[in-house]
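Researcher: Next entry in the queue.
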Amino acid sequence: MKTTKEFDDQFAALLLGDSPRLRQLAKNFQQREADADDLLQKTRLRAWQSRWQFDLGTSIAAWTTTIMRNLAINESMANQRHHMVPVDTSEMDKSYPGVLEDVSCERSPVRANVLDLVNERIVMEVQAIPDPYREAFLLFALEGLTYEEIGYQLRVPVGTIMSRIHRARVQLKRALVPHYPQLVPPVRVVSVRASP
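Model: Structure for this entry, 196 residues:
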């Protein structure tokens, strides 16, 4: 779809103005500096290519955050299938000779499959949260923004933001607890004596 020169100039200014925040967000998503830079560039490119979908006057921060989050999630899921984890054998008990001979640096296939399934389930459940709740929740959980900052970015009252984040947490917990019961804190039983 075509855009006007005036729109492109305004959009470019907004995108450049949002770059410091996006850089910090990319560092939150990626551990290595080079990976964070790659994610930042991919986000800028995707935003520029899709600029015709952006409405001037709305939050560029929320829009680019959504783009970056989706790119990071997709990249993370793709990388997990080929992730290598170094194994430090220096701390392992050497009293059983031959046990470590066949240990490779890769994750065991069973452990890798379990981790992939857990991460895929979490990503799937987060994506199942309705958009307004998910957006507020991710700004809070991933970016570490305060309720006030999220409210300002989304142009929504703080009370609404608090409610959305709470509802997103409740929905996520309900979806994950059947699969991961350790998410539920243990119940503390307190005996109460009736007074005479």
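Model: The two ends are 80 Å apart (CA to CA).
Researcher: Noted, moving on.
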